[in-house]
Amino acid sequence: MSDSSIKNMEQFAAISGISRPTVSKYFNDPDSVRRSSRERIEAAIEKYNYRPNIFAMNQNRALTKNIGIVVPLLSDPYFSEIARNLEQHCIDAGYRPTLFSAHGDSKHEVEVLDNLRSLKPAGVLLAPLGRASDQDVLEKFCADVPTLIFDSNVGECGIEFVGSDNFQFARDITNYLCRSGEPPCFFEMKTPANPNAHRRRQSYLAAMEEFGFEPQVISVEGEGWAFEEIGFRGAQDALLKKAFATNTVLCSNDRLAIGFLSACYVNGITVGHGEGCAIRVAGQDGHPLTRYTCPPLTTISHNYEAVSLQAAEALFAAIDGQKQPWKSTRIEGKLILRASA
Amino acid sequence: MSDSSIKNMEQFAAISGISRPTVSKYFNDPDSVRRSSRERIEAAIEKYNYRPNIFAMNQNRALTKNIGIVVPLLSDPYFSEIARNLEQHCIDAGYRPTLFSAHGDSKHEVEVLDNLRSLKPAGVLLAPLGRASDQDVLEKFCADVPTLIFDSNVGECGIEFVGSDNFQFARDITNYLCRSGEPPCFFEMKTPANPNAHRRRQSYLAAMEEFGFEPQVISVEGEGWAFEEIGFRGAQDALLKKAFATNTVLCSNDRLAIGFLSACYVNGITVGHGEGCAIRVAGQDGHPLTRYTCPPLTTISHNYEAVSLQAAEALFAAIDGQKQPWKSTRIEGKLILRASA
DNA sequence: CCCTATATTTTACGCGCGTAAAGTTTTTGT
DNA sequence: ACAAAAACTTTACGCGCGTAAAATATAGGG
């Protein structure tokens, strides 16, 4: 418990009366040293509170336990939630995760990937920015480092792709909306950052066709990641123009829907599936706050747990040397019926 | 642009026909080498796309440019927003920020701090968990590493404290609520993680006394960081019991308020300051989504920009060797009047 | 109790780079 | 054109630790 003036493993080994390599072995696997040594080391750790420098440790190690986790934007609840899950899975499996955000910007993404190489990661879990990503950089990175791409597919690179089944998302919720009331219009951003948005639109179109309804897509302007603001403005505009052919709107994602709900509110339009409601609104993603919107938002939620677990385990398997052909795993979401639709 | 087979600075220096130490100097400061050398190095970088290993770089450097940023929980929008700001300021000042989250858990916080030492940071910007933090560990860390504490004060440790003026927050919004309608009740968590919550309660009490109103504090049960859920349940309960003496509620923070609004909605209680509204609700923090709640939430917002700038610059000054006595800087928030109150 | 097989520890070197000190070249001033 | 100053390059060593190979200690068998 005393304040260790011990600066490195050399000194620590000397004080505990054991050779440095043995101490090194101990930290790598406590059971790999003799019991008597282990006890002396552990007593010394207790006494001096010494810990090896993790970066020096990884410097000359054949296989590190580092795993890099990269998401496009940490402030987006979907990514912060999935990142949280991934980190936990890594820790549980004995790895050391490090989290990076590309801050919604392609240049940052490239920089993160560059820095990641210095970490000598055993593997990387990467959710690319999508459309904006530098494809060449991603591919080269995947070629150099065992990488599992999740959330947003960017060609067959990396070990495997794991993400949500966006076709199923839009299909199932469109299906529900059609069966429970008027068919939905589709509300989306004109230039979404993420390719999943395209899948959702296409799936909506297909589902509507299957039902024999006329689809209607409202694409609103707006760049960047301020989806609520974009949804709000787009909805304001569209509501003013009475642009929606039916009384039901399916938003491309929950954050747009949150903006949409807000626009409805300020325009005095009551949202919900009940009597006296003017419009039904649904989202997609299972954003943590959709439970608390007014009204609570009907949505289709990512299976966060399954996506993150599948992604993590596929990466671990690859790190363990199990070679598999590239594949794409798409995990179904779960419809969450609430008052908004 | 070719795929560099270059593994280290040695090889890179050899290929570019320059000594390794000179290359090292170049990466440390391109202007510190002769122009002819610089051009040759830059040509080689272009050609082989070489970058030094950032962790090896910092290994034996007297002063690194690393800055650690630690927040209690990244999934909380307040922290992700402030962290984003801090990162940008670090980058702008030529530092290399690395972001860590304590995941709302004291043990993680200790671990993060341990790992941070390995980074040999020039400085650390630390928002402690608060009540749950291991005080001894924090103090020892501050003694070893130039650390600036922000958001939540934990005794006079570190270089300086920078945070919001929580007394002013609750005072000003209580003031506004008293002047614009019935005096507010105060809605809070019984056992908040963060000491700022206590300040806000006390400030509310003081402000009410000043106005000559009877204060009323409703403290709801709930552990952890699921504030919306805690707010929702607490509000459900309190509304059912008609626990509020007035028609106005000041929530201790915006996330509780979001849960509160949701509870009002499902109970058919209209929120707002207008005609026909049953209750007024206000929050505190300036959560990014409060603009889009229904109704939009009246709140008092942190001055994110000022807090992060002040914190960053104080740290930079300390890193540059400017010794100042410890002080505490509390930055005022800005009242944001919306429809909810 | 002695010898061999196995478990540990030592020795020695490497990872990728920073940096001080000493030697060399280039630039500057005149 | 020459000396002094400035810039640069070499040399040499260090950071904190991993790891293979050699040396040593421990355990098992008769």
Word description of this protein:
2 copies of one chain form a homodimer. By secondary structure, chain A is an alpha/beta fold. The first copy, chain A, folds into 3 domains: 50 residues, 434 Repressor (Amino-terminal Domain), CATH 1.10.260; 124 residues, 3-Layer(aba) Sandwich (Rossmann fold); 136 residues, Response regulator (Rossmann fold), CATH 3.40.50.2300. Helix content of chain A is 44%, strand content 15%. In chain A, the strands form 3 sheets. Chain A has a 6-stranded parallel sheet, sandwiched between helices. In chain A, strands 7-6-8-9 form a 4-stranded parallel sheet, sandwiched between helices. The radius of gyration of chain A is 25 Å and the shape is elongated. The model of chain A has no long low-confidence stretch (mean pLDDT 93). Chains A and B meet through α4, α5, α6, α10 and α11 of A and α4, α5, α6, α10 and α11 of B. Chain A binds a DNA duplex (30 and 30 nucleotides) through α2 and α4.
Task: Supply database-style keywords.
homodimer; 341 residues; alpha/beta; Rossmann fold; 6-stranded parallel β-sheet; 4-stranded parallel β-sheet; elongated; DNA-binding
Low-confidence stretches of chain A: none
- Oligomeric form: homodimer
Name the pair of protein chains with the most residues at their interface, and give those residue counts: A-B, 43 and 43 residues
Mean pLDDT of chain A: 93
Q: What is the third-level CATH name, the topology of the largest domain in chain A?
A: Rossmann fold
Largest sheet composition of chain A: 6 strands, parallel
Number of domains of chain A: 3
Class derived from helix and strand content of chain A: alpha/beta
Beta-strand content estimate of chain A:
5-15%
List SSEs of chain A in N-to-C order: HHHHEHEHEHEEHEHEHEHEEHEE
Q: In CATH, what is the class of the largest domain in chain A?
A: Alpha Beta
Number of E-type strands of chain A: 12
Instruction: Write the CATH homologous superfamily of the largest domain in chain A.
Output: Response regulator
CATH architecture term of the largest domain in chain A: 3-Layer(aba) Sandwich
How would you write the strand order of the largest sheet of chain A? 2-1-3-4-5-11
Distance from first to last alpha carbon of chain A: 59 Å
What does the overall shape of chain A look like?
Answer: elongated
Number of helices of chain A: 12
Radius of gyration based on Cα positions of chain A: 25 Å
